[in-house]
Design goal:
Two copies of one chain form a homodimer.
Chain A (H helix, E strand, L loop, with lengths): L9 H15 L7 E2 L1 H8 L3 H13 L3 E4 L3 E4 L4 H24 L3 H19 L3 H18 L3 H21 L4 H17 L2 H25 L7
Helix pairs in contact in A: 1-3, 2-3, 4-6, 4-7, 4-8, 4-9, 5-6, 5-8, 6-7, 6-8, 8-9
Chain A binds a DNA duplex (30 and 30 nucleotides) through α3.
Chain lengths: 222, 222
DNA sequence: ATGTGAAATCTTGTATACAGTCTCCTAAAC
DNA sequence: GTTTAGGAGACTGTATACAAGATTTCACAT
């Protein structure tokens, strides 16, 4: 089959691959997803594809209308902006809890992701930078030691990454600095400061998003 | 087939029915979900059941291990408690935004749910009360006019309802009073007050949960 | 030209079939 | 009595088949 590498189930591979294609823009917003064609393109049967579609729909990447089929979700500029409000609330909480429940292991993990991101920035691998930035945010979520928070943050952050890639609003170095500063507050166990820095970080991302969105009158996929 | 009423797709019916059985406790925590048996019990084939399982897994009600099968998720007391932190952050935001963006239509909708809940309480239909309380919280989420927030709150609130039903920690009348008070703050457009009341409401629910959880040393399903 | 309607085509929804994996039980070996 | 190899049964993962609904096309009437 077309999908590479060792895997546990085709279904999981398909889910990851479709998610990746959506996040990367290979599958454009609003594009119709025809089960047969996806299955053929991925070299699998329709069954794993269908199950993947349900999962991605639950995560909000795909919109499904019974009997009419599935399309890649559309993100209006408003919906993109709305997400930042949610992120400030959720990631602010995550940072606070991460500071409260910090352990050497979780701090180590944050530092490691940060280090990888730094390397990727310096060697100019931009595609990886986006993934690693998301990974850092998720690591904060996991450091919070709240399983539901982590469960909820994963699709939220992927959606955020999607929005950014669609808007072409990248802000590599600034973002990395802010991550470092957040990491330090968490390590210091300063809950208020950690929350404040997380919220400020997301707010900065929002400004960057608004600037990039304002620069374009129309959406690239229109 | 066994599932009642008019429907769009079997898949959706199955998803709702399984979710209902989990929320109601008919399917106990940790219980193994065998596709064949569920399909037979619901009078459908395995396919719709499998797709439903993926969806419910994405919502966090079911845990799936590839090749080993699916089980109803287990909620430890800690995980139950953790959810309240998330709810305070998310529902606080929802209440704030609902107050900011209030419209006659959304206020009307909140009032209507509140009214139904009141009737259910007064006529002692306890099963409905839980559903209507959840519906009120969700209505606040929708009144916030933030599509992702609403998308995210739906499974979160269902999970909260699940936790409560499992703990048998019901607090009908108090809860209703607090809903009313929150509704008034939203109608008045007082963002700070709305957020404060929502947070206080969830905090009260947490205390009630902790009291009920402390009352039992063991879980009823153990 | 425009609108209408029915056939043909495409697509989804559901069921069934089969292959591979896991579990559990049995029985032999020590 | 305990342990381990092997095999039967059970269950999941994937593919294929078929039924029903949606869309397109094209002929025909206006």
């Amino acid at each position: 089959m077309t999908l590479g590498g060792a895997h546990q189930t085709l279904r999981d591979e398909v889910t990851r691959e479709l998610r990746r294609r959506i996040l990367s823009g290979e599958l454009a917003q609003g594009e119709r997803l025809i089960e047969d064609r996806l299955a053929a393109a991925l070299g699998v049967s329709r069954n794993p594809v269908r199950e993947s579609i349900r999962v991605l729909a639950a995560e909000g990447f795909i919109q499904v209308v019974p009997r009419l089929g599935a399309t890649v979700a559309r993100l209006s500029a408003e919906e993109g902006e709305e997400l930042f409000d949610v992120r400030m609330a959720v990631e602010g909480l995550a940072a606070r809890l991460a500071a409260r429940k910090r352990t050497p292991a979780s701090a180590e993990r944050l530092r490691r992701v940060l280090e990888q991101a730094k390397e990727a920035v310096e060697s100019g691998r931009l595609a990886e930078v986006a993934d690693l930035n998301t990974a850092f945010h998720l690591a904060v979520g996991e450091a919070a030691g709240n399983s539901y928070l982590a469960l909820m943050m994963k699709p939220m952050l992927q959606r955020a990454q999607w929005i950014f890639s669609q808007t072409a609003a990248v802000r590599g170095p600034h973002s990395w600095q802010e991550h470092l500063s957040l990491c330090e507050a968490i390590e210091a166990g300063d809950e208020d400061e950690a929350q404040a820095r997380a919220v400020a970080h997301v707010a900065a991302a929002r400004r960057s998003f608004l600037a990039a969105a304002g620069r374009r009158t129309k959406h690239p996929n229109d």
